[in-house]
């Protein structure tokens, strides 16, 4: 079988005015995220950090920094959980009072779960248990070691009703401890202070438990015992290292300081199995992309209706900017292929925003960023091949949803979509999902959104998760009060104003709901990362997918079923284009137009003859039009597509064929030429 042959993807870019505008817009969004990150990392502020230091202890972030390798980074997840939520007593819980992150220790990736001792002494708040469990979930799927840095005074009692009961309440943490142990995933615990009730239970199933001299683990603290049994005792005397290291055997070792406890944890990790990453590179070396990942912040338009090249995005995420594309001529609105990240193979499935040729109607096109029958079947087949070969799947989402309408229903898109959903629901290979911008409707689900258990889902400052855009949803909500053109169907000024206000309120609410920080606060995504950080997170996630050996099927590239797929797909389409579309007749067309050449709309949508309402039109009557000139825009599902004159010679614009800012069908005349 032939080896994997990859070709360059993308190219160097010209930093034009559009690039600079995108970069400026992204920088403003990044600054907001950076401000929130700094607030989360400071916990309850300097006063509480000073209180920790006064006890001779390290803050949680200082412990994490001491634990990781000096030449590696901390990659947090769940930073914004509970962001903006006010709890009983007007209190906030930055990052839900617990830090979860990926770090390298002795060149092995580990998942660290650390109570923030500057936030209510590391208490558990609503969503704290779910956040801990999410980190444990990732470790369990990838068989990556877990390190608990425990400093927890138990539940934040005024809110215990929202964190104690329920299927994923605090008690489920201990089930996850047990499942990790059952699967042979190493777990280590450093106990640094208060560990009361659930905080005391969490370390117990770990393979190794190390306590500092200030640490104690108790089912109930001294205050509760004194109240219940009138005994004069301290928590340290009933559950400190003297008890649990030397009498109960609930802990293994003791350390005089936080720093030494961290060093002992690092020593334990050094004795674990080494990473299998070099083995699974199959002779390749890790390499950076040929183009800087930071350029993504100039390539990605802030305006969600503007398009960009997904090829350029992939070129800034994968090793050497090399890519093996499969099925390029089948469902081209979806890009599928194989690349390397850190020298390790990954399958990539990505939305293509360009206009693409219609598979059955010659001369027609259709917009990308939407799932059609061909691309759904392509994604299902490709993802199954990745699963069979053991390639992690990287989903790059910017999707408006499934195709809709008469053709979609007749083709059975519901059935094809179910096939893709079934595939994603049953895959055993790890899936990583990145929401580049839009993650809309059932398309978000079909492309391995969070409900389909990717090992990691990342959002960007541009991400918008929703069933549909706010304006579209407002139209749907008030549909009975609109005419066929979706204009308000009343002449009563008061009634019109009321409907306008209602539609605006719905639109504003949905726009607020689509804020990526809102999604992250609710744990609808794992982390918001800058575009310039995407490569680092993907390096980490990919290496974690390959770090443990012998725990999942990973086939040698020579025997990939992917090669068979490439042969079967070469030069073929799911359906050949055989039908030539008929021109949509205009019954009001003047007779003098009959002998003029026509330029017809390649897709259905809303036609615009100018780039914006206050701008000059692209062309005017009597103007010479050259090959490649933009003559109009057509908007489809909130994306704008440039319509260009595709002739071989120049022509003279004679008459507009349609109304500006009105719906247009594919085949309708846009311009008449002389």
Structure description:
The protein has 674 residues and is α/β, with parallel strands linked by helices. The protein has four domains: 44-274, 2-enoyl-CoA Hydratase, Chain A, domain 1 (Alpha-Beta Complex); 282-469 and 521-569, 2-enoyl-CoA Hydratase, Chain A, domain 1; 470-513, no CATH class; 591-673, OB fold (Dihydrolipoamide Acetyltransferase, E2P) (Beta Barrel). 32% of the residues lie in helices and 21% in strands. Strand 18, helix 17 (441-446) and strand 19 (456-459) form a beta-alpha-beta unit. Helix 4 packs parallel to helix 5 (172-182), helix 14 runs parallel beside helix 16 and helix 18 packs across helix 19 (493-513). The protein starts with 6 loop residues before the first strand and ends with a strand. The model is unreliable at 574-578 and 580-587 (pLDDT under 50).
Describe the structure concisely:
With 674 residues, the protein is an alpha/beta fold. 32% of the residues lie in helices and 21% in strands.
In terms of quaternary structure, the protein is single chain
The overall pLDDT, averaged over residues, is 87
> How many strands?
29
**Percent in helix:** 25-40%
User: How would a crystallographer describe the biggest sheet?
Assistant: 9 strands, mixed
Uncertain residue segments: 574-578, 580-587
CATH superfamily of the largest domain: 2-enoyl-CoA Hydratase, Chain A, domain 1
Distance between the termini: 57 Å
CATH-defined fold name of the largest domain? 2-enoyl-CoA Hydratase, Chain A, domain 1
Specify the structural class. Answer: alpha/beta
Strand content: 15-25%
Cα gyration radius (Å): 29 Å
Helical run tally: 22
Q: Number of domains in the coordinates?
A: 4
- Provide the CATH top-level class of the largest domain: Alpha Beta
What's the overall geometry? globular
């Amino acid at each position: 079988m032939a080896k994997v042959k990859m070709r360059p993807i993308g190219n160097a870019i010209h930093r034009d005015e559009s690039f600079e505008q995108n970069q400026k817009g992204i920088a403003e969004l990044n600054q907001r995220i950076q401000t929130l990150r700094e607030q989360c990392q400071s916990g309850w502020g300097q006063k509480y950090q000073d209180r920790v230091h006064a006890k001779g202890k390290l803050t949680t972030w200082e412990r994490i920094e001491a634990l990781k390798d000096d030449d590696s980074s901390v990659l947090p997840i769940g930073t914004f959980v509970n962001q903006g939520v006010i709890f009983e007593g007007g209190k906030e819980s930055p990052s839900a009072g617990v830090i979860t992150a990926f770090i390298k220790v002795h060149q092995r990736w580990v998942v660290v779960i650390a109570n923030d001792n500057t936030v209510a002494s590391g208490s558990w708040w609503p969503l704290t248990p779910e956040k801990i469990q999410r980190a444990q979930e990732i470790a369990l799927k990838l068989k990556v070691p877990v390190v608990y840095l425990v400093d927890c005074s138990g539940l934040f009692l005024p809110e215990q009703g929202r964190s104690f009961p329920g299927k994923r309440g605090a008690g489920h943490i201990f089930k996850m401890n047990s499942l990790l142990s059952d699967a042979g995933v190493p777990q280590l615990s450093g106990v640094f202070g208060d560990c009361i009730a659930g905080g005391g239970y969490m370390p117990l199933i770990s393979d190794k438990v190390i306590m500092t001299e200030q640490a104690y683990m108790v089912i109930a603290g001294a205050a509760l015992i004194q109240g219940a049994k009138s005994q004069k005792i301290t928590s340290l005397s009933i559950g400190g290292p003297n008890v649990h290291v030397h009498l109960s055997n609930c802990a293994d070792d003791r350390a005089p300081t936080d720093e030494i406890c961290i060093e002992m944890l690092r020593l334990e990790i050094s004795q674990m199995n080494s990473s299998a990453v070099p083995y699974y590179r199959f002779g390749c070396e890790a390499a950076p992309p040929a183009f800087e990942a930071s350029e993504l912040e100039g390539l990605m338009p802030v305006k969600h209706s503007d398009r960009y090249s997904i090829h350029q995005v992939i070129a800034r995420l994968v090793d050497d900017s090399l890519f093996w594309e499969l099925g390029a001529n089948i469902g081209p609105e979806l890009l599928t292929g194989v690349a390397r990240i850190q020298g390790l193979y990954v399958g990539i499935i990505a939305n293509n925003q360009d206009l693409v040729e219609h598979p059955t109607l010659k001369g027609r096109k259709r917009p990308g960023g939407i799932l059609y029958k061909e691309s759904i079947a392509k994604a299902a087949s490709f993802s199954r091949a990745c699963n069979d070969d053991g390639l992690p799947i990287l989903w790059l989402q910017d999707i408006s949803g499934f195709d809709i309408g008469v053709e979609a229903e007749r083709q059975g898109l519901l059935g094809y979509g179910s096939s893709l959903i079934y595939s994603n629901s049953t895959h055993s290979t790890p899936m990583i999902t990145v929401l580049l911008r839009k993650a809309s409707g059932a398309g978000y689900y079909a492309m391995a959104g969070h409900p389909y258990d990717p090992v990691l889902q990342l959002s960007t400052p541009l991400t918008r998760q929703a069933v549909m855009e706010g304006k579209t949803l407002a139209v749907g909500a008030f549909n009975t009060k609109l005419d066929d053109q979706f204009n308000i169907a009343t002449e009563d000024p008061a009634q019109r104003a009321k409907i306008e206000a209602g539609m605006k309120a719905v639109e504003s609410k949905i726009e607020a709901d689509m804020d990526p920080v809102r999604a992250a606060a609710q744990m609808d995504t794992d982390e918001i990362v800058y575009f310039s950080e995407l490569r680092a997170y993907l390096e980490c996630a990919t290496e974690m997918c390959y770090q443990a050996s012998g725990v999942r099927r990973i086939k040698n590239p020579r025997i990939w079923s992917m090669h068979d797929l490439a042969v079967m797909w070469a030069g073929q389409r799911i359906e050949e284009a055989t039908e030539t579309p008929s021109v949509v007749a205009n019954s009001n067309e003047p007779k003098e137009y009959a002998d003029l050449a026509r330029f017809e709309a390649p897709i259905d949508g809303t036609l615009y003859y100018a780039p914006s309402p206050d701008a000059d039109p692209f062309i005017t009557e009597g103007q010479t039009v050259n090959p490649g000139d933009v003559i109009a825009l057509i908007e489809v599902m909130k994306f704008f597509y440039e319509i260009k004159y595709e002739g071989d010679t120049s022509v003279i614009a004679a008459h507009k064929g349609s109304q500006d800012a009105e719906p247009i069908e594919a085949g309708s005349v846009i311009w008449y030429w002389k």
